[in-house]
From TrEMBL:
Pfam families: PALP. SUPFAM superfamilies: Tryptophan synthase beta subunit-like PLP-dependent enzymes (SSF53686). Residues 16-300 form the Tryptophan synthase beta chain-like PALP domain. Keywords: Lyase, Pyridoxal phosphate. Its cofactor is pyridoxal 5'-phosphate. This is Hydroxyectoine utilization dehydratase EutB. The gene is eutB. It comes from the Bacteria. The keyword Lyase applies.
Length: 315
């Protein structure tokens, strides 16, 4: 598992390479939730999401490698590309032919090679594994890795510095690297703090795995919270047991509830992606209340501007 000491070491290691993001109060959400609500603005992080913390910590811990690789084209791929460039290491982000052009361009703009292989995410992952096996690259996974989890945990330390009397933290949940890290940090400091995971109802692999008592595969369905999609890995080693042991509550949201959260946050001046809107969505849906200072993690802001605009038009 990942300890408080690992997370404190990660904080020292990544200092100066990631931003300490601001916390903002929300009068509207506080009124709706029945108590104080704070927004941890990680959508303002460099590369637009918290994943830079884990990727930077993992890359900084590497010994002698030819470079780094992964098969994620979303926020983890961006974060890894940025972290590798900062340390002068080559990065190859593997992706299938189906990846949209804007995501490909974003990776290339960060100085990484975007390697197109095959027709599916599995083919892309196979190429990343080949680079690891045959070419001396380190494969940095998006969540199930101790250094990644420790890096995400620095967000938990920061939250307690900024909101020392926090009673609960609401965490967008997918593979569980964010929740595992934040919970490990926060509960080590404040064992009574409540950690609430939030996922979408459609195809949430961690929720299904917790219900089954072991990692299971789910059918992936399109969701507005695209950064919360994907499996947790059938061979999951760390995040499944950590989320199982450290999470106090799990909330699932419909697509409409996520969209309502996104619209509400836009009205408060926060442009976030669907995954980052789940805390606000849960409050608006009456599924989450504040019984003492509640911190919502706005985990990322990488949303297609045209999609964001069209969501604001539909009411
Ligand atoms: C990756 C991601 C998440 C989920 O993080 P996990 O560690 O996979 O649970 C939530 N929000 C955003 C914006 C993300 O990029």
């Amino acid at each position: 598992m990942v300890s408080l000491d690992d997370i404190l070491a990660a904080r020292d290691r990544i200092e100066g390479q990631v931003l300490d993001t601001p916390v903002a109060g929300s009068a509207n959400l506080s009124a709706l939730a029945g108590g104080p609500v704070w927004l941890k603005c990680e959508h303002r992080q460099t590369t637009g999401a918290f994943k830079l913390r884990g990727a930077t910590n993992a890359v900084a811990r590497l010994g002698d490698v030819a470079g780094v690789t992964t098969a994620s084209t979303g926020n983890h791929g961006r974060a890894l590309a940025h972290a590798a460039r900062a340390l002068g290491l080559p990065a190859i982000i593997c992706m299938s032919r189906l990846v949209p052009a804007n995501k490909l361009a974003a990776i290339r703009d960060l100085g990484a090679e975007a390697r197109i292989v095959g027709e599916s995410q599995d083919d892309a992952f196979e190429e990343a594994r080949r680079l690891q096996r045959d070419e001396g690259f380190a494969l940095i996974p998006p969540f199930d890795h101790p250094d990644v989890i420790a890096g995400q945990g620095t967000l938990g330390l920061e939250i307690l510095d900024q909101v020392p009397d926090a009673a609960a933290i609401a965490v967008p949940l997918s593979g569980g690297g964010l929740l595992a890290g934040v919970a490990a940090a926060a509960k080590a400091r404040r064992p009574d703090i409540c950690i609430i995971g939030i996922s979408m109802e459609r195809g949430a692999a961690m929720a299904a795995s917790l219900a089954a008592g072991e990692p299971v595969e789910v059918t992936e369905l399109p969701t507005l919270a695209d950064s919360l999609g994907g499996g947790i890995g059938m061979g999951n080693r760390l995040t499944f047991p950590m989320v199982r042991d450290l999470m106090d509550d799990l909330i699932l949201l419909t697509e409409d509830e996520i969209a309502a959260g996104l619209r509400h946050l836009a009205g408060e001046g926060h442009v976030v992606e669907g995954a980052a809107a789940v805390g606000a969505g849960a409050i608006l849906a009456g599924k989450l209340r504040s019984d003492g200072p509640l911190v919502l993690i706005l985990s990322g802001g990488n949303i297609d501007p045209a999609l964001h605009a069209s969501l604001l038009e539909t009411t």
